[in-house]
Specification:
Elements (H helix, E strand, L loop, with lengths): L2 H7 L3 H5 L6 H10 L3 H10 L7 H8 L4 H12 L4 H20 L5 H14 L6 H7 L7 H26 L4 H8 L17 H23 L3 H17 L3
Length: 241
């Protein structure tokens, strides 16, 4: 399979890697730590970057209005240290993997293929991906599969933010193009005006994202590519995605 074919066949990774974000178990874990769902999401996902200023994390996330993100991040880290929140958050991902994927055969092959892709990327200009990649991968296949799906999600997201910047598309405009109904939830009072040029540049950024990741996906053997695609399909089914 060609790299872009593999990417198209595994697009569910975005939803798989985020499946634990607002899962009831995750919400409850955050609540026990003193964080509501949104604050646990921001601090847990961004906490791998350490106890940094909100703007550093916002630059890695994109999409959010800076005022909203600053408020969420700063109030959350007063309650739980960022690195501690990150460990709690990843633990939620691992538990969901064990709960949903324990009956899936062949996940070791998925984990091997995912690890190959992740390790092939240099990581320059992708701090959130690099920080998540540096976290230890669980030894058991179900948890490792969820973990690496999460890392692959951050990989594509980081590459896409880089591509958007290169193509001159601001993240608020990009968000308006992809998910216009969610703009208010991300802190914007109004949906930014989107021009035909913006849409053309956004599509160009999508193609550039594929180009940025092409070499990593091309490093897979045929067997690894098959294991990756099959693993994504089975995990998506297990999560009812």
């Amino acid at each position: 399979m060609q790299p872009t074919e593999i990417m198209r066949a595994t697009e569910a990774l975005g939803n798989i890697g985020a499946a634990f974000y607002f899962h009831p178990d995750t919400i409850e874990t955050g609540k026990q730590a003193g964080l509501d769902g949104f604050r646990f999401y921001a601090l847990g996902r961004g906490g791998v970057l350490g106890d940094v200023e909100a703007g550093v994390v916002h630059a890695s996330f994109g999409y959010f209005h800076t005022g909203l993100f600053d408020k969420i991040w700063n109030s959350a880290k007063e309650i739980v240290p960022p690195r501690e929140a990150a460990r709690l958050y990843m633990g939620c991902a691992h538990r969901l993997g064990r709960a949903k994927f324990s009956e899936i055969a062949g996940l070791d092959g998925f984990v091997e293929a995912a690890t190959q892709i992740i390790g092939h990327v240099e990581g320059a200009s992708m701090p959130l991906f690099a920080a998540v990649r540096a976290e230890p991968v669980p030894a058991d296949a179900p948890a490792a599969a969820m973990h690496q799906a999460m890392v692959l999600r951050e990989l594509r997201g980081s590459a896409h933010l880089l591509a958007l910047t290169a193509c001159g598309v601001s993240t608020p405009v990009a968000h308006s193009i992809k998910r216009p109904g969610d703009v208010a939830m991300f802190g914007y009072d109004e949906v930014p005006e989107v021009t035909d040029e913006d849409r053309a540049n956004w599509h160009r950024a999508e193609g550039l994202t594929d180009e940025l990741l092409s070499a990593a996906y091309a490093s897979l053997t045929d067997a690894q590519a098959t294991a990756l695609v099959n693993g994504v399909g089975m995990m998506a089914h297990a999560l009812d995605l």
